[in-house]
Amino acid sequence: MVLDLFAGPGGWSHALTVLGVRDVGLEWDTWACNTRARAGQLTIQTDVARYPAWIFSGRVLGLIASPPCQAWSMAGKRLGLVDQPLVHQAVADLAEGRDTRDQLLTACADPRSLLAAEPMRYLHALHTAGGPEWIAMEEVPDVLPLWKQYAAILRGWGFSVWTGILNSADYGVPQTRKRAILLASRVRTAGPPPPTHAQVAEEETLFGPGRARWVSMAEALGWGRTDGPVPTVCAGGGPGGGPEPFPSGSRKTLTDARDRGTWSPRPGDAILSTRRQRPHPVVPQGNREGRLAGRASSASTGGVGSWAWSLRNNNQANATVRRADEPAGTLFFGHRANECTWVAEPSPGAGDTSQAQSVAVPEPIRITAREAGILQSFPADYPWAGNKGQQFSQIGNAVPPLLAGHLLAPHLGVTLDPDDFTLAA
After folding, report:
1. At 40, phi and psi to the nearest 5?
2. What is the CATH number of the domain that holds 52?
3. Quick one: the chain helix, strand, coil %, rounded to 5?
4. How much is the pTM?
């Protein structure tokens, strides 16, 4: 079997499913387990730190581990850095078959820090029985020194090991999420998968196959598609400026607006426009395509009142803000679930600034779980369970499935087809 520790809602598992393999996930969070069940993934709901590792001896081909990152993440207090010497000690002890976790736990500033040592407990139990054949682990960048300690131990056990930092955007994920990765194998030379994307597209040469441009949020979400009428926004702002996309006070989303045909980036540059001119031509209400085409033809592009949409990660002063024609920054949620918003700014080609200032700026719109999941490279119809906060928590902590697919395919001897990782419906 493939054993997935801290399996979460199924980032690794979805990648394995696409590659034609099933795993068994260990996960304690009820809502993540419910999501996994909806997605048809095998799960043991348990505390990874208390589950007996010997049960899996002699039965595991590959081990996957993504310990919780809250103790190490820049979004939190980062007490894992304070506890790092204790975690290193736990890893060293577990590699020798000594379980000192209870003693070390009492000295930890954040009890979650020690969870990063749990994979070694399982690896020691599996190693004594001759397995596993390969290992893949993922965490926030600050955990890289710990992965290097794992690597030194695993090399002593006969593994080829690679550790390093990878950017998810380099593998087609619409998000510049950087992660510390450990890859190990008994049967092949371990190394990172070749990047498929770059910030600037690269032509194929004698020295390489070339790389596509990073996937933008607009591309991933399906905004600005050319397979049907492409409307441009007509978002009120003054007399004759067109109808508001939603009634005053309604809590809708940018994607909802796109689906209604009232609010959408143009192809290519993700620009939204609003006009203080005459109302749109009257189009029969039963003809939706006619209405969309009418709005598209009558809206301005790059003139007074044009808006470029960006995603703001939170409401802090130093929050990451990325335009819709770029990949998202690293998504994290938890208690900040409602702070991740689409915000509008005057587009670079907005023309007369003094006139643009007289047009009302569209209000920020909160991101939806569906949109956030797509930006993590989950399919649009992934069956998230729980309320909005619980869904956002799962999404923010998950491994991007597309990145996971690139990491796992070489171990499984499978060729990855990125087209199998469908995003926007």
Report:
1. 75, 25
2. 3.40.50.150
3. 35, 15, 50
4. 0.81
